[in-house]
Design brief:
Layout lengths: L1 E7 L2 H10 L4 E7 L6 H10 L5 H10 L6 H8 L8 H13 L2 H12 L4 E4 L6 E6 L4 E3 L1 H5 L7 E7 L6 H8 L3 E4 L4 H5 L1 H4 L3 H7 L3 E5 L13 H12 L5 E5 L5 H9 L15 E4 L2 E5 L4 E5 L1 H10 L1
Parallel strand pairs: 1-2, 1-7, 2-3, 7-8, 8-9, 9-10
Antiparallel strand pairs: 4-5, 4-6, 11-12
Helix pairs in contact: 1-3, 1-14, 3-4, 3-6, 5-6, 8-11
């Protein structure tokens, strides 16, 4: 049975896990801990807990569709004040058990999840970025959504964060490690800032797989596929063995919507890179107030399993 570790945060991580859980494999999701927006940010400020939002999303993705269906829906429920019930449950379990890691494990038991969900670190950190104009952006929200045209030069944590031992152990013993798509400077790259992650990746004999983002956004408006790969490798301190890259063409009206927001489909400039595996991985998912492009869980998971 393949042992697969995914690393990421946010919706991209969610989509990959939704697909992988349908295969005969041993799954562990290692989750970004720098979120400070929305419900997660409020809970961090009010209760001093780790941000539960990305952890919750991974749990929902891996939840048993039959045994834990009602609880799965409860974990997704959002109140008018912006708080998510799943976030509140994870926060409560953290306080009851006295440990963020134990709180996450107990929440996972409630949902009968297919695999493990682990924080990349249990340290309380804040994400910062320095722009090309030498301006410092403070907090994950500001790093993820800088002003239009701002280019991020580097990101860093204050204070330093150290890897959660169980997460590092899972990476070292994995057959495949998958770097999931997502908010690049807010949810993907921050995992590599955690001290001990690069070492664990170096020590692992796993096939390292990078799933490239579908579209650009603030902070990386002009990135092509090669830029995403090079930047992720720079922070991770490793070379990826395989790169999964979308070659599908979304509907023109969806592309035009992204263009109106200064985002564009990531261009493929890796034509001579033998590591690249291309596929029609994209689908338009209707939502309010716009349609969002996301990876198709079944297709991206099939590609990962087959490597």
């Amino acid at each position: 049975m393949q042992k697969i570790v995914t690393i990421g945060g946010g919706t991209g991580h969610f989509q990959v896990l939704r697909g992988l859980k349908n295969y005969e494999c041993q799954l562990t999701a290692v989750v970004n801990m720098s979120d400070d927006g929305g419900s997660s940010g409020k809970l961090r400020d009010e209760y001093g807990v780790l941000p539960p939002g990305d952890v919750r999303q991974c749990m929902v993705a891996l939840a048993d569709e039959k045994k834990g269906r009602l609880l799965r829906d409860l974990f997704k429920h959002r109140f008018k004040d912006g708080h998510n019930l799943g976030n509140l449950i994870i926060t409560a379990l953290t306080q009851i058990t006295g440990s963020a890691a134990e709180g996450i494990k107990e929440a996972a038991k409630l949902l009968h999840i297919a695999g493990k969900v682990l924080p990349v670190t249990t340290d309380d950190v804040k994400l910062f970025a320095e722009t090309d104009d030498n301006i410092i952006l403070e907090g994950q929200w500001n790093v993820s959504y800088p002003e239009q045209g701002v280019k991020i030069k580097k990101i860093f944590f204050k204070p330093d964060a150290f890897v959660f031992k169980e997460a590092a152990d899972e990476i070292r013993s994995a057959d495949k490690v998958v770097i999931c798509p997502g908010d690049f400077y807010g949810s993907v790259v921050p995992n590599f800032l955690v001290k001990g992650i690069s070492e664990a990746l170096h020590q692992s004999r796993a096939l390292k797989i990078f799933v490239c983002n579908i579209v650009t956004k603030q902070g990386n408006e002009n990135f092509k596929a090669g830029d995403f790969v090079a930047e992720a490798e720079r922070y991770a301190g490793i070379k990826f063995d395989k790169i999964l890259l979308n070659s599908g063409l979304p509907p023109k009206e969806v592309v035009d919507t992204y263009l109106s927001e200064h985002s564009r489909i990531v261009a493929d400039d890796l034509l001579s890179d033998l590591r690249v595996v291309r596929g029609d991985f994209v689908q338009a998912y209707p939502s309010e107030p716009k349609t969002i492009l996301r990876h198709i869980p079944e297709k991206i998971a099939r590609a990962i399993i087959s490597l």
